[in-house]
Amino acid sequence: MDQQNLEKCRKFLPGLTEECPDIFAKLAQILEEKVLEIWEGENGDYYAAYLMNDSAESFLVFSNAHMIGEFQWGLEAVTQAALAVEEDSYVLAVQQGGKNSFTIRFKELKFETHLYQYHGIAHVWVRGQEHWRQLVYRLGIVKDKYQFLGEETCTREEKELLPLLEFAPFRSWISVPWDEGKRFQSSGAGIEAFLNIVNEAGDTKYEKVLRRYMTSIDSHKGLRLENKLHDMLNLPEHIKIYDIIREKINRASAVYKKRSFGTAVDNLISEKRRAVEEMFWKNGFGGQYPWFKKHNDQMEISCYMLEEQPFVRAGRKKYRFYYFWSETDDTGKRGEPHYINEGFFAGKGRRCRIQAEEMSWEENGGSDQQPPQEVRG
User: Fold this and answer.
1) Closest among 67, 27, 55 to 118, alpha carbons compared
2) pLDDT at 76
3) Could you tell me which InterPro entries the record lists for this protein (predicted)?
4) Which of 111, 137, 2 has its CA nearest to residue 48?
5) What is the pLDDT of residues 93-143, one digit of tens each?
6) Are 234 and 296 part of one and the same domain?
7) What is the pTM of this model?
8) Which run of H or of E encompasses 222?
């Protein structure tokens, strides 16, 4: 570790030496940001989370480790740590305020990163317009992956999509409560990226307002147009913009591996998906997992399935299935195609609701399932 980085890291991890590998800087960063979480893994290893989201699970591995004491989850206390470098091992001593302490003796500190699909995952943390918020969330976790793990963890397609987050009318569909009330700024790259999507959709009406926004972005008029562009995205006449972004995210995500929780649990999840399919087919729906639809009394009824998955490591043993129900009257459709989540858009003759169904499992592979609960009606 170079001297400049060493001095910075020592502020948060006293005991570091020049001989310590650079990977210890990540441990110091975790301590600096006060986000230390440690749990026991396999084969005598312990893990500390680095970046854990639906697109990536990355963590430090304390290899060949032995812990005295234990990490206490949910303890609100200032965590401090110190490192001792011994001849053939390291010792990390941790204080969780004055309430808990533990030590880990380990042979080596390693770093692992696993990249996963994320396009079929949902979190309903902010109510209303959930269809748009899911897209902002997915690009947000890709941005975190890019920033914390490096551009090599992102594909060309993902990097081409990231500038969309710099288009304020889109980014303002916040997905997490702590973004409430924030004002987002548009950049030239963000405007250009979104304009390309609009042109691909052939949406000349949206393009016209967007070009007016481009020429007045720093004025009061620009703010009014920004709000208008934001609201226009949720009108059904601009649904192709939504569908193109959704499809591009799906394709960018699909190149990664799916999460696996072991054969027994993977089988339970597959059985549940098959049961969902059979339930819809029995009730007259066509399609296959994750999208089902049927026509009934001049109305298109559809359901798009999304899932809330635990982390492969450090994950809770619970799995949630979301039912995104959508109803759209045929009035005025004139043979136009129906889209995923069409009922979530504003306008007469459109209705939507979300249900959630939880499944949990035990170490022996047994499962417990709860009936669907209304998330939003």
Assistant:
1) 55
2) 83
3) DUF3878
4) 111
5) 999 988 899 999 999 999 999 999 999 999 999 999 999 999 999 999 999
6) no
7) 0.92
8) helix 220-232
Output the average pLDDT for the chain: 92
For residues 70 and 102, the answer to whether their CB atoms sit within 8 Å is: yes
Asked, for residue 121, whether it belongs to a domain, the answer is no
On whether residue 207 sits in a domain, the answer given is yes
179 and 232 in a single domain? The answer is: yes
276 shares its domain with 239: no
Q: Is residue 123 part of a domain?
A: no
Whether residues 272 and 323 share a domain: the answer is yes
Matching residue, tokens 């290893």: 45
- Residue 41 belongs to a domain: yes
Domain that holds residue 58: 3-115
Domain boundary among the residues 115, 150, 184 is at 115
Radius of gyration of the chain (CA): 24
- Quick: pLDDT tens for 293-352: 998 878 899 999 999 999 998 766 789 999 999 999 876 555 567 899 999 999 999 999
User: How many distinct structural domains can be found in the chain?
Assistant: 3
The residue-averaged pLDDT of 143-148 equals 97
Span 169-193, mean pLDDT? Answer: 96
178 and 231, same domain (yes or no): yes
CA-nearest of 213, 206, 208 to 237 is 206
Distance between CA atoms of residues 32 and 235, nearest Å: 44
- Alpha carbon 328 to its chain centroid, in Å, reads 28
